[in-house]
Amino acid sequence: MTVDDREETPSRTAPEQSDRGSTVELSRRRLLGTVGAAGVGGIALGAVGGVAGHAAAQSEPAADLDSVGRTSVPFNGTHQPGITTPMQARGHLVAFDLAPGAGRKEAAALLRRWSSTARRLMAGRTAADDSAVAFDAGPSSLTVTFGFGRSFFGRTGLEKQRPFALDPLPAFSSDQLDAKRGEGDLWVQIGADDALVAFDALRTLQREAGDAARVRWQMNGFNRTPGATAKPMTTRNLMGQVDGTNNPKESDPDFQKRIFVPASPADGSADPAWMAGGSYAVVRRIRMLLDDWEKLSLRDQEQVIGRKKSDGAPLTGGSETTEPALDKTGPDGKPLIAADAHARISRPDQNGGAAMLRRPFSFHDGYDEDGVPDAGLLFICWQADPMRGFVPVQRKLDRGDALSAFIRHESSGLFAVPGGARSGEYVGQRLLES
Ligand SMILES: C=CC1=C(C)c2cc3[nH]c(cc4nc(cc5[nH]c(cc1n2)c(C)c5CCC(=O)O)C(CCC(=O)O)=C4C)c(C)c3C=C
Ligand SMILES: [Fe+2]
């Protein structure tokens, strides 16, 4: 069975491709296929349905949108959205466990439902039975990304299809992990540039889990709002550092190989065929010990990272994008970028080439009774193989990162994120119907 893909074409493409017109641009396909029947601009189009009993009336995106609201990200593609999509202002992470008695059949129906809804919401289309929370705001770059945890495969009788890459991460000496806030059968990452749109997607997907799955843990995050700066700039984290500078770039020749499982895994590949075009997400809730951090002088803070706080430039000079001169020493003969500086020891060339795409959200969950902020980084990194991405780098950081004294890893999850859905397909179909 396939999901209804009549509405797959987005009203706007990703920011870098979008124009700045003020009206909602409708694809030819949608004009012919749907709007033609009912007109444009928030008019309900009648039952679309066709997906696991979901037969809500759908409307076009609100017509009166500014650029943030108008921007949409395609749901279909080789890879799922929310991996190379520019970082969004708002994020929700949620993990579900399948309910007792729910197995492969229920999981397949759930992924089919969720994919249909994600496709619709990402195009900014509301349904008659929607809560109205996201009305008026358009797609706002909403992305929904689905992943499978290690425990999913036992629950669904799909053990033989479980990738070796989902073997548990090693324990690190600095881990202080809360198991209740980690792992899970299913993982959903939601990102959007509007907080109401993001919440609406979270709540809708949770409601649609119905009796099939229950929330195991849920976390909320944020980043700088696109458009807040005159030109696009690397975001900052809650320690105030420019964070994300030396991420792999899509234009790098080895980007695809490092971040994504090949579209046709070679014979003998460790990855099962259903992971073609997929990626592995490592998710860590990392608390920042901000009271201790903020007691450091600016100079000491910069030594911890090896980059200037003002503009993210390496301590050896230049601008944010200048390559650090790791051998350069100061008048005292010591390296200007310390031996234990975070940005030195996390580099691929210090870790046998290990690289990952970091795409985090900051979090702030209030203050504890002593006034200590419960704040930090929802660290999410993407790689084709966690053993050649996160694991070697975290091993190195665990042994001697100057930043370690100011952070605490509080929860952890590892998820297999399958390739993007093709037209008419739901995410994970190649696994669940294999
Ligand atoms: C295991 C992987 C990593 C964890 C965990 C991690 C936590 C973490 N990092 C910062 C702040 C910065 N990190 C920076 C660079 C950087 N960090 C990692 C990996 C992990 N970080 C890598 C691979 C890199 C890039 C190294 C390189 O190739 O140069 C930087 C510098 C700017 C940048 O390149 O992004 C900052 C700042 C925090 C605050 C944190 C935990 C809370
Ligand atoms: Fe880092």
From TrEMBL:
Belongs to the DyP-type peroxidase family. The keyword Signal applies. PANTHER family: DEFERROCHELATASE, DEFERROCHELATASE/PEROXIDASE. It catalyses: heme b + 2 H(+) = protoporphyrin IX + Fe(2+). Keywords: Heme, Iron, Lyase, Metal-binding, Oxidoreductase, Peroxidase, Signal. It comes from Streptomyces luteolus. It is found in: Cell envelope. Its main location: other. Binds 1 heme b (iron(II)-protoporphyrin IX) group non-covalently per subunit. Its cofactor is heme b. This is Deferrochelatase. Residues 234-421 form the Dyp-type peroxidase C-terminal domain. The lineage of its organism: Bacteria, Bacillati, Actinomycetota, Actinomycetes, Kitasatosporales. Pfam families: Dyp_perox_C, Dyp_perox_N. Involved in the recovery of exogenous heme iron. Extracts iron from heme while preserving the protoporphyrin ring intact. Residues 11-25, 69-85 have a biased composition (Polar residues). InterPro entries: Dimeric_a/b-barrel, Dyp_perox_C, Dyp_perox_N, Dyp_peroxidase, EfeB/EfeN, TAT_signal.
